[in-house]
Amino acid sequence: MTRTSVGHFVSEQARTKFLAAYDRAMELWPGPRQELDVETAYGSVHVHRYGAATGEPVVLLHGHAGHPSNWYPQVAALGEHHPVYAVDTLDDPGRSVQRIVAAGSAENAEWLDEVLAGLGLERVHLVGVSYGGWLALNQAVHAPGRLASVTSLDPGGIEKVPARFYLHMVAGLFGMLAPRPLRPAVGRLLANPALSAPREMIAPLMLAMRSYKPNSRPPARPFTDGELGAIALPVLVLVGRRSALLRPKRVVERVTALIAGVRAETVERAGHGLNLERPDVVNERLLAFIGSAAPGGAQRDRASKDRSTASQVAASSSEVTAAETNQQAMP
Question: pLDDT tens per residue, the chain (331 residues)?
Fold first, then answer.
């Protein structure tokens, strides 16, 4: 769930090299972009901000060993009508500086709540992928007070991590050794978007694998039925059909049975990194869900459905009338 000790680079030189690659990766985002640092009891947390000056905020949490550039396919779409904040999560290589290990579920919710408070945010739409998806659901369980909704993309913590996930990671590393022109094809075969991602986004990951210690963390703790059943927020769960982490059918069934009102969907032609593999689908689902979770959103959804139904009925009536008229005109 968290590293057993505070993460650190093996040398200042290694950290400097990593941060230079990190900054180049962040150029994948649109601009202008602000950078903020928020002090918490667990360390200083670095945050990137982009987007509208008004609107309900969207907060993004990347996956294990990732960084905020991983959200570059989502930022422009979300930022058109929302302020977007991407957190450099504690316990991962980045510009955040951790001082104390966040050992358990409650501690992880505590530092994230302190970040949201430090940014002055209320009614946050919290979005996470993989380990970030676990953090988002964990926040809904332990510190939901500042949340308007939660979206988890192929999240940890829904079921035990299978052995194939680790095999998938090893296969991805070997895939990196393939000639660059072949990597996209290997990536499609393995459902691993890292093999076709921009070089700038992958460079920090590769550097951190060699220079950030400890370089592993225990799997995310699975949520109990009671924890998931206690969530009282709008929740969206998207799972990749080819996910190496999850069994889509079982995950959709479990969250549907336990989380009241959850929207759960399997995304076709996507694996674990579905925000990178199917950004069109993820962006559309995110914007629709966030809109429905906003004040008055449910009423707008119902009104839209009513208008759609009325249009279909009107079209059907017109077809029937036209058919009857034609029949009457027949000799």
Answer: 566 789 899 999 999 999 999 999 999 999 999 999 999 999 999 999 999 999 999 999 999 989 999 999 999 999 999 999 999 999 899 999 999 999 899 999 999 999 999 999 999 999 999 999 999 999 999 999 999 999 999 999 999 877 777 676 677 766 776 787 877 777 777 777 777 789 999 999 999 989 999 867 778 899 999 999 999 999 999 999 999 889 999 999 999 999 999 999 999 999 999 999 999 999 999 999 999 998 876 544 554 444 444 444 444 444 433 444 444 444 3
Which residues lie below 8 Å from residue 299, measured CB to CB, with a gap of 6+? Answer: none
Four-residue CA torsion sign, 185, 170, 236, 286? negative
Its pTM stands at 0.86
Query: Does a cis peptide bond (omega within 30 degrees of 0) precede residue 32?
Result: yes
Sign of CA dihedral 250, 256, 257, 262: positive
**310's tokens:** 């009325």
What tokens does 243 get? 């996910």
β partners of residue 217: none
Closest CA to 301 of 313, 290, 292: 292
Task: Count CA within 13 A, CB hemisphere, residue 191.
Answer: 21
Are 167 and 253 spatial neighbours (Cβ–Cβ below 8 Å)? no
Q: Is 154 left (phi over 0), alpha (psi -120 to 50) or beta?
A: left
**C-alpha distance across the termini of the chain, in Å:** 78
Residue 202 corresponds to which tokens in the numbers above? 């992958």
Q: Where are the alpha helices (DSSP H) in 217-278?
A: 225-229, 248-258, 274-277
Contact 60, 203 (CB under 8 A): no
Which ranges of 67-130 would DSSP assign to H, the alpha helix?
72-79, 105-118
CA dihedral of residues 227, 231, 237, 243 (deg, nearest 10): -10
Helix (H) or strand (E) holding 37: strand 34-40
